[in-house]
Design brief:
Strand order of the largest sheet: 3-11-12-13-14-15-5-6-7-8-9-10-16
Low-confidence stretches: 6-61, 103-115, 181-192, 302-333
Helix content: 10-25%
Mean pLDDT: 72
CATH architecture of the largest domain: Clam
Number of strands: 23
Shape: globular
Length: 425
């Protein structure tokens, strides 16, 4: 972790000098991730978590008058937060200029032999596009509940001790898994439910380093709570990420809202925040579940299948610095490995990290029969010293697929991808 601007900031006025923050590393609950993580794929046809700006809906009017605090102190406050219980309503929306994923993951999963339309790895992918309202609750590391409201129906995911249940009221389908042991979650967040600002903030704080500027950007009210705003900005050029703002509860250090803005401007790319929040103990009944009579119940596959389904990082794992190593076999800049039939390597550092994957034998996608016209329909041609290829773009993540079988992907601009490909010959 490298320098955080420790300037005291109140209403945008800065005083002070740089300093080094306390570490904000988190521990990940493998069970919770494999049964209830928000899946946000980032690959050639991948999707990144991004949302429409919800600031007017999520923030109260009037900025609170709070004691001055440095960025270093605010990061430490988040890291030291020991809140174990919460419940509330979270709004999350995604807008990358791509079609909605609602129902897509489920239909693909069924085609691949998936056994339940209520399986979390299928249904939670829908959070990667569109606008959603979630009800969340947590009571310590072993009890969490997340409910996605879907008009007259809803989808609920419940973790209670060694039991994980998922229920889709629309299809009347139930998914059930037994973990064999109670899960272990981040001790700071007290097991906060997936999809909350805490989860997004944890990923963002992993990005703090020499390539990052961190300051306090005034105060705000979110869901009726006084909060400080932590501002994280890349120092590097070439990143598609312009800034990250995290509204931090002034009393307990819990992130209340997470906003990621693209460097290209316009609407926020990621904005996840509480509209209501209560830090009291949720009712025990919130974590109880009995399959409704007549519902179709599907048991999870064997432990190996569950482990395979749980691989990967959180919603920003492949967007922010430090997260591009989320694919198996990848790590820091210059590291190499393999994922399935792909040879992988990371290039660059910080916010301009790029993941390179190569098909053994150098066979490009364009060599497949009939694929050229399909690639042209969804991407733009690019060429350079690397040869030629196609660039696929979203507001945050871009991917270059070369005709020689290499793929370059990252939260970087098209020009940055081409430069990386040229240098990687």
């Amino acid at each position: 972790m490298a320098p955080i601007d420790s300037s005291e900031t109140h209403g945008g006025t800065q005083i002070g000098t740089p300093g080094d923050p306390a570490g904000a590393a988190t521990r990940t609950d493998r069970l919770r991730r494999k049964a209830s993580r928000t899946v946000v794929p980032v690959a050639v046809a991948g999707v990144a978590a991004a949302t429409i700006g919800l600031v007017p809906a999520l923030a109260d009017s009037g900025d609170p008058d709070l004691p001055k605090i440095t960025a270093r102190e605010l990061v430490a406050k988040i890291a030291a937060s020991d809140t174990q219980r919460l419940s509330g309503t979270v709004k999350i929306a995604t807008d990358l200029g791509i079609p909605s994923l609602a129902g897509l993951a489920g239909s693909l999963g069924q085609g691949a032999g998936a056994s339940s339309g209520a399986a979390p790895e299928d249904r939670l992918t829908e959070l990667a596009s569109g606008t959603h309202t979630l009800k969340v609750a947590a009571d310590g590391p072993d009890k969490q509940r997340l409910t996605i409201l879907q008009g007259s129906s809803e989808y609920s995911l419940i973790h209670n001790g060694d039991q994980v249940w998922a229920y889709d009221s629309g299809s009347d389908e139930v998914f059930h898994a037994e973990t064999g042991a109670a899960g272990h979650t981040d001790s700071r967040s007290g097991g906060a439910a997936e999809g909350t600002p805490q989860q997004f903030a944890d990923e963002a704080l992993k990005a703090v380093g020499d390539t990052t500027s961190v300051t306090v950007d005034g105060t705000v009210r979110v869901a009726g709570r006084d909060a400080y705003q932590l501002l994280i900005k890349p120092k590097q050029s070439g990143s598609t990420v312009g800034s990250v703002r995290i509204a931090v509860d002034a009393d307990n250090g819990v992130p209340l809202r997470f906003t990621l803005s693209p460097s290209s401007g316009g609407k926020a790319a990621v904005n996840v925040g509480f509209t209501k929040v209560d830090f009291g103990k949720p009712a025990a009944s919130a974590f109880d579940f009995t399959p409704p009579k007549g519902a179709k119940v599907t048991e999870a596959g064997d432990a190996a299948d569950q482990e395979s389904a749980g691989q990967g990082g959180g919603p920003l794992a492949d967007l922010l610095p430090g997260g591009l190593g989320g694919l198996e076999g990848t790590g820091g800049a210059g590291s190499a490995g393999s994922t399935g039939n792909l040879e992988t390597k990371t290039l660059g550092e910080g916010w301009t990290t790029i993941l390179r994957a190569e098909v053994p034998g150098g066979e490009g996608l364009s060599s497949a029969k009939g694929s050229s016209s399909l690639l042209d329909a969804f991407g733009d041609k690019a060429s350079g010293k690397f040869g030629s290829g196609t660039v696929f773009s979203t507001r945050l993540v871009n991917a270059l697929v070369t005709d020689q079988g290499k793929v370059y992907v990252g939260a970087v601009t098209r020009d940055a991808l081409v430069r990386a490909a040229n240098a990687d010959r």
